[in-house]
Amino acid sequence: MASWARIRLLWRWAVVLCGVAALLTIQLNALFAEYKKVSSLMALQSPLLSIQELDQVEYLTLLPPLGLKHPQTINLNHEFLNQSSPARSLFFPSSWYGTLDPTNTNTNATTRFFLPEKIWLDTAGNPIQAHGGGILFDHKSATYFWYGEYKNGNTNLAESTGTARVDVIGVACYSSKDLWAWKFEGIVLASHPSATHDLHKSNVLERPKVIYNEKTNKFVMWMHVDDATYSKAAVGVAISDHPTGPFTYVRGTRPNGFDSRDMTVFKDEDDGAAYLIYASARNKEMHISRLSDDYMEVENVTVRALIGMHREAPAVFKHGGVYYMVTSGCSGWLPNEALVHEAESMLGTWETIGNPCVGANKEYRAATFFSQGSFVLPMPGGGGGDRGLFIFMADRWNPANLRDSRYMWLPLTVKAKFERYGQFPLWSKVAIFWHERWRAPIKDNGETYYVSKPFMAGDDL
């Protein structure tokens, strides 16, 4: 009997040991898989930037913060606008979670990552104030200039509409060689003291964009100007001899008599033609008009596009002879789904090709990663052939404190229609990829370092 009891005991121990061995095998396999994943990511984070690093599908898993009554059924859209929500830190993380800080000298071209959602500081250590803006590349100085709404003031509610606003301060300008470290150049177009002026502090100045005219050697700024009730619905134009201003305000007008709200300008580098694109008919449609040769007037031809679609926040770019436009829906401060539209001519027929957002999670993709587009910038060294690489510039608006609105810069790619990304059967050939951090292929001096040739030890970054 004792021997049988001993045998049963040994058998039980054998079963336990087998189970432990199986569990260890599973854990080791998981660790090996994680090691391979980390190794591949480390390869992508090599000194030489691979295209794969930009269009890699990255998922986002959010842990519900403490204090939510029903974390299993959290609605991110509701929490986004709820100023007292414990989930607020998911969208507007404090500086404790990190900042994009160019004053940190322990960086080089391989470690300078863009950090969507995080606070972005300028070279003086102050939060950048260039909301709803756009970028001009000045070829003479090989410098990027970032223009945007300077909102470093108190957020209040407009008496007539109740919408959040900051009194007009002006248009800010920042300069950079590498798109990462930005120097504040000052307010290049300031508010005006006259209560009857378009730029009086009680009015609205939004979405400034600057283009350079080679014929006149002038820098021309277009912007949305309005009153506090958004009933003026006009565009303003200003001009300067220098990219850092000062800009002189020339006039405000309704282009060809149409109401104009969210707008942008696009300069076709192939032929020098420039266009004004703006939401009109109370945002029911988009209008496009060519600018005069000096970029100061709107020509008397207006193309109506996206009729009945209620789109705003247009951002236009060109690749491979095709024009693309990214727009958002009209839902106030609540983020919504971006759409991409394409045309063979700026004044041609525009076709909608779908939501470009890839990665993160379903709610983020349906809300343009909780942001709204403002501009699309060609990526330095942005590839060739069928591939196009760009930077999608967007704002994550914070209506409770507009000066704390964040910048959502993400890589945008254009590929052939038959290509696919990961598990996503995307039929759109334009994709904006979510990344918690990513980098652009640009050195301190503005030179690019793509994989056009193998990176060798000793190469200067």
| End-to-end C-alpha gap | 78 Å
Main β-sheet: number of strands, strand sense, barrel status?
A: 5 strands, mixed
**Secondary-structure class:** alpha+beta
Fraction in helix: 10-25%
The second-level CATH architecture of the largest domain is 5 Propeller
User: Which value, in Å, is the CA radius of gyration?
Assistant: 25 Å
List unreliable stretches of 5+ residues.
30-48, 420-427, 450-461
What is the string of SSEs from the N terminus onward? Answer: HHHHEEEEEEEEEEEEEEEEEEEEEHEEEE
Topology (elements, then pairings):
Blueprint: H1 2-44, H2 51-54, H3 76-81, H4 88-91, E1 99-100, E2 119-120, E3 131-138, E4 143-149, E5 156-157, E6 164-165, E7 170-176, E8 183-190, E9 204-213, E10 218-226, E11 234-240, E12 248-253, E13 263-267, E14 274-280, E15 285-290, E16 303-305, E17 311-319, E18 322-329, E19 339-343, E20 351-354, E21 357-358, H5 362-366, E22 372-378, E23 388-396, E24 406-414, E25 430-433
Parallel strand pairs: 1-2, 21-25
Antiparallel strand pairs: 3-4, 4-7, 5-6, 7-8, 9-10, 10-11, 11-12, 13-14, 14-15, 15-16, 17-18, 18-19, 19-20, 22-23, 23-24, 24-25
